[in-house]
């Protein structure tokens, strides 16, 4: 069975499905991104996560074209940059993202950060509803939203986000936000799922990895899968891309899950969404 067949799909609240593991591609320039994306697709990835902020949407488009895979077999996410909040700015920014990607639609368009101090995410979401209605994003969602930001969207707009992409890894499991998402029919997508590399060398994870004959990356990604997260590990390394998909032939038991839960230290690798304003 190929890796593609093994990656399960989760169903969003709008009825569409998303592969549970995809490639996050923050970091490389266009050339490096195109190489990583085409390799990832070759080894079985069917979901790619980028953002206007990453300045590599062109590379994502190039990697997809190089792969030769029919567009409808791929799930592509991009995100609105912080300087483009507002109704008209969001519409223009979306057009620019599609142009850079060289695609006619994205599967998922996200507000990258709520920017509570700017306070234009409700107006921005109304532009997202328009993009959705036009069919140019098949689904719309958010990233780094806290409960109060989601409550405002629910009260002041029509469409609910299908997913919320948040920081989530063993050191920062973000349990309350994950539970809120789940209670409201929103899928949680875990960013920096490997803690940007901080999980490596951890003796507890090393012990669990030994027990299952797996690597630390595989144990952590399996933990995400068992929590019900969508997960987007980043790698530009072919061997690691393959390794990170190969997590569907073993299961963590309750003891393993409890040991991983004990690694919480509350330390983020990125910004606090309540404080970050672009
Ligand atoms: N929405 C947001 O605000 C937000 C914020 C941050 C990130 N993200 C998204 O989340 C994605 C992933 O997060 P991230 O890039 O911060 O960090 P990450 O996926 O937690 O970690 C990536 C690092 O781990 C290494 N790595 C990957 N697989 C490995 C393996 N099997 N063994 C050893 N090392 C491995 C990578 O190295 P190599 O590449 O050299 O192999 C890279 O240095 C991003 O690319 C982006 O798409 C979103």
TrEMBL record:
The keyword NADP applies. Keywords: NADP, Oxidoreductase. Substrate binds at residue 112. It holds the Pfam family Aldo_ket_red. This is Putative aldo/keto reductase. InterPro entries: AKR (IPR020471), Aldo/ket_reductase_CS (IPR018170), NAD(P)_OxRdtase_dom_sf (IPR036812), NADP_OxRdtase_dom (IPR023210). SUPFAM superfamilies: NAD(P)-linked oxidoreductase (SSF51430). GO terms for molecular function: oxidoreductase activity, acting on the CH-OH group of donors, NAD or NADP as acceptor.
């Amino acid at each position: 069975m190929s890796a593609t067949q093994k990656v399960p799909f989760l169903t969003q609240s709008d009825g569409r499905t998303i592969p549970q593991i995809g490639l996050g591609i923050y970091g490389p320039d266009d050339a490096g991104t195109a190489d990583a994306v085409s390799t990832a697709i070759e080894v079985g990835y069917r979901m790619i996560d980028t953002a206007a902020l990453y300045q590599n949407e062109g590379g994502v488009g190039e990697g997809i074209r190089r792969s030769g895979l029919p567009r409808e077999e791929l799930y592509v996410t991009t995100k609105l940059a912080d300087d483009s909040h507002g109704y008209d700015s969001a519409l223009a920014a979306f057009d620019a993202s599609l142009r850079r990607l060289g695609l006619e639609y994205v599967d998922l368009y996200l507000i990258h950060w709520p920017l509570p101090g700017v306070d234009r995410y409700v107006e921005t979401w109304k532009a997202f509803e328009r993009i959705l209605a036009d069919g140019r994003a098949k689904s719309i969602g958010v990233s780094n939203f806290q409960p109060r930001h989601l409550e405002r969207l629910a009260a002041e707009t029509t469409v609910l986000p299908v997913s919320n992409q948040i920081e989530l890894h063993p050191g920062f499991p973000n349990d309350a936000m994950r539970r809120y998402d789940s209670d409201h029919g929103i899928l949680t997508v875990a960013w920096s799922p490997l803690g940007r590399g901080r999980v490596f060398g951890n003796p507890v994870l090393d012990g669990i990895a030994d027990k299952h004959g797996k690597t630390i990356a595989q144990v952590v990604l399996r933990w995400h899968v068992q929590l019900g997260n969508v997960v987007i590990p980043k790698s530009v390394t072919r061997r690691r891309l393959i390794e990170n998909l190969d997590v569907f032939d073993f299961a963590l038991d309750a003891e393993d899950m409890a040991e991983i839960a004990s690694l919480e230290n509350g330390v983020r690798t990125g910004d606090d969404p309540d404080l970050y304003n672009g």
